[in-house]
Amino acid sequence: KTMSGEKGKLFPDSASYVGFANLPNQVHRKSVKKGFEFTLMVVGESGLGKSTLINSLFLTDLYPERYIPGAAEKIERTVQIEASTVEIEERGVKLRLTVVDTPGYGDAMNSQDCFKTIIQYIDNQFERYLHDESGLNRRHIVDNRVHCCFYFISPFGHGLKPLDVEFMKAIHSKVNIVPVIAKADTLTLRERDRLKRRILDEIAEQGIRIYQLPDADSDEDEEFKEQTRVLKVSKRPLSVIGSNQLIEVKGKKIRGRLYPWGVVEVENPEHNDFLKLRTMLVTHMQDLQEVTQDLHYENFRSERLKKAGRAADDEVLDKDQILLEKEAEVRALTRLFNEEIRKGRTIVDELQFSIAIVIDLQSHFKKQDSIHCVF
Ligand code: GDP
């Protein structure tokens, strides 16, 4: 039986809840009043189980009618960005969750195009926020900035693919990256450990910056401190399993994957890191938002201001250039004018000379006339 519930609705089973209502007290108080706005982006090759995991994480079916493309289609596909928003309410805490999926990532041959579309999306949300922030209605800004990006790594490779490295480098200064190993059930425990170590080494070697959990504040409650401690010591990247199926195990319905040799349970910490990933996300939503605001958005804003400054400088340069050109033009005209005047002078001189000759001739002829009269 699949769990394709009504779009955006929590599953009726009240025993299974996401857990964001259990946020540490101070965060909880703030969020009860305002409600959370959180945007999670999922990136990775299609077929790695992104939508299944998202559905498992938030106990909702975001994509009940998702169509899975065939191989020929995949080659032609460009990255399409799909944003779905659900409002989840849990024990009085509201969460407006937007999941941004990039279904065709890695399918198309031209990977640069995938990058561009995703980066453009992230930048556009920053741009929108910047615009709204400088507008009049600053109180009711909808925050659609991408607060976290789950980057799905294939369990079938021997580490990161060149595309993984390139992509994470392209976005690490824009968004909090949380890498996850997909379909962990396809790996033995030893294989998982080896892959984790390898990926972490590669991330360090390549200088990729991923989201780092902060230390818990000393005034936080003990449970939260313990959760953070466990998360901090667990091996990264977290390796996860997703499933949309409920299976009955020992009289209890659990979310899992049924194999001929047994059941892999999504929410069993011995089977995979799903619960850790969910706890990490849920308990650090506010930190993810703060890092987005203080680091990534500030980066974007200062870059934008620099660009605006450069544009203004260019404008001043343009004006100077125009002024110089005009001055040169005026100088050339003055030179021409002076020349014309000089030419004019010569003409006047010549004219005066000619007039003098004419007068001379006239008086000469007059004299001749008078001689003639005498005869
Ligand atoms: P997406 O394209 O990345 O969103 O992938 P989907 O969520 O549509 O999953 C693709 C296929 O992988 C489906 O047949 C899922 O049932 C299967 N799948 C999802 N998660 C897992 C997992 O954790 N392990 C295994 N073995 N298969 C999975």
Automatic annotation (TrEMBL):
A GO molecular function annotation here is:
GTP binding
Point out the annotated site residues (description: Important for dimerization).
Answer: F156
Describe the location of the Septin-type G domain by residue ranges: 34-307
Query: Under the cellular component aspect of Gene Ontology, which terms does the record hold?
Result: ciliary membrane; cleavage furrow; cytoplasm; midbody; spindle
Gene Ontology process terms (BP):
cell division
Q: Which UniProt keywords apply?
A: Cell cycle, Cell division, Cell membrane, Cell projection, Cytoplasm, Cytoskeleton, GTP-binding, Membrane, Mitosis, Nucleotide-binding
**Cell location:** Cell projection, Cilium membrane; Cleavage furrow; Cytoplasm, Cytoskeleton, Spindle; Midbody
User: Which InterPro entries does the entry mention?
Assistant: G_SEPTIN_dom, P-loop_NTPase, Septin, Septin2
Concerning its family, UniProt says: Belongs to the TRAFAC class TrmE-Era-EngA-EngB-Septin-like GTPase superfamily. Septin GTPase family.
Extract the PANTHER family matched here: SEPTIN
The name this protein goes by in its record: Septin
Origin organism of this chain?
Neogobius melanostomus (round goby)
